[in-house]
Write a structure and sequence with these properties.
Blueprint: E1 5-14, E2 18-21, H1 22-25, H2 33-40, E3 44-47, H3 55-70, E4 79-83, H4 94-101, E5 108-112, H5 118-131, E6 138-145, E7 163-173, E8 178-186, E9 194-196, H6 207-211, E10 217-219, H7 221-242, E11 252-255, H8 260-269, E12 277-278, H9 281-284, H10 291-299, E13 308-315, E14 319-326
The protein binds coenzyme A (COA).
Residues 31, 35-36, 39-40, 116, 155-156, 159, 219, 221-222, 224-225, 228, 258-259, 286, 314-315 line the site of coenzyme A.
Length: 331
């Protein structure tokens, strides 16, 4: 009997309407379009302006897009994994709320947090549940309202991040398509270099933490950049080596959209042609858990059944890795 693999069978996405351009940012902080474009590749990002809407709103929209496109009954979904670094509220899982709102009333759901690698790790979790035979339809959503944790007076972070969401459905496959291999890593050394200092159990919220702006993302950009370049490139070349893939065998690189220079360095190590490197960072910036599914959604029509796709990510923690997946359908 052939082994059951776990394949992506549908994709959905959502980004809010409001466009925050580099030119608008340059009226808010001391920066300019040329600096941001040349250092990051970002031109604009989407922002969820409504104060009363959280990350769940983005995730629900992306899931509803997938459900409508695939024309499935949400009652058939067994499980919803909600990858996010910006849950609606503390303690109560945002995923549980999202699952109820989309009508996935027979599913159980929880949040998965691994900063910018949340979605990649979520792919590993979702496919494991399918491969085990325990569940048949696992919905993985990656969503972040990064604007809720960004200090728009800090030019070193506010230029990078944006809001968005994407969703994929994993189902069993008997043709050997779907996830082939994964190489996932983490290193707690990263905790110091990319974080929100307060609001967790080590430094609960207080008047002082608010006054000190300790509830916003802070990063040592140069150090994060250095680790991201070497680790994302290492992970991607390792997964290729392990599966005897050359640059010619890989059809697409779907890499976390943190910085164009990091993606270019990864592609170079993989010896990939420029046209195989998928990018939308110029339009969305870094949407944290949403970058990989937003790429899948934007480029879905180009994928052919059997295409070899390498996913790669790097994020806070540090967390990083690479996944090799065979695409399972023609659009
Ligand atoms: C943040 C990042 C774009 C900064 O680029 P960089 O080339 O490392 O720039 P530096 O931090 O060395 O800053 C260079 C200069 O530009 C200035 N600068 C920083 N942000 C600026 C901005 N938005 N506009 C204009 N100048 C800026 C700095 O103050 C510094 O000036 P100085 O030389 O007078 O001190 C880059 O480090 C990066 O992308 N890091 C990874 C971040 C990331 O991906 N995080 C998420 C991980 S998932």
């Amino acid at each position: 009997m052939s082994k059951t693999t776990a394949a992506i069978t549908a994709v959905g996405a959502y980004v809010p309407d409001y466009v925050l351009t580099n030119d608008i940012l340059s009226t808010m902080v001391d920066t300019n379009d040329e600096w941001i474009t040349s250092r990051t590749g970002i031109k604009e990002r989407r922002i969820l302006k409504d104060k009363d809407k959280g990350t769940s709103y983005l995730g629900i929209k992306a899931a509803e897009d997938l459900i409508a496109k695939k024309n499935i009954d949400p009652k058939e979904i067994d499980m919803v994994i909600f990858a996010t670094a910006t849950p609606d509220i503390m303690v109560a899982a945002t995923g549980a709320y999202v699952a109820s709102q989309i009508g996935a009333v027979n599913a159980f759901s929880y949040d998965l947090q691994a900063a910018c690698s949340s979605f990649l790790y979520g792919m590993s979790t979702a496919t494991s549940y399918i491969e085990s035979g325990r569940y048949k339809k696992v919905l993985l959503i990656g969503a972040d309202k990064m604007s809720s944790i960004i200090d728009y007076t800090d030019r070193t972070t506010c230029i990078i991040f944006g809001d968005g969401a994407g969703a994929v459905l994993f189902e069993p496959n008997t043709e050997g398509l779907g996830l082939q291999d994964e190489y996932l890593r983490s290193d707690g050394i990263g905790r110091e270099f990319l974080k929100i200092e307060a609001g967790g159990s080590t430094l609960p919220a207080s008047e002082e933490t608010v006054a000190n702006k300790q509830h916003f993302v802070k990063q040592d950009g140069k150090t994060v950049f250095k680790y991201a370049v070497s680790n994302m490139a290492d992970a991607s070349s390792k997964i290729m080596e392990r599966n005897n893939l050359t640059g010619n065998d890989v059809n697409w690189l779907i890499a976390h959209q943190a910085n164009k220079r990091i993606i270019d360095a990864t592609a170079k190590r993989m010896e990939l042609d420029h046209n195989k490197v998928l990018m939308n960072i110029e339009r969305y910036g870094n949407t944290t858990s949403a970058t990989l599914p937003l790429l899948l959604s934007d480029f879905e029509k180009q994928f052919k059944k059997g295409d070899n796709i390498v996913f790669a990510s790097f994020g806070g923690g540090f967390t990083w890795g690479s996944i090799y997946l065979k695409w399972a359908y023609n659009s």
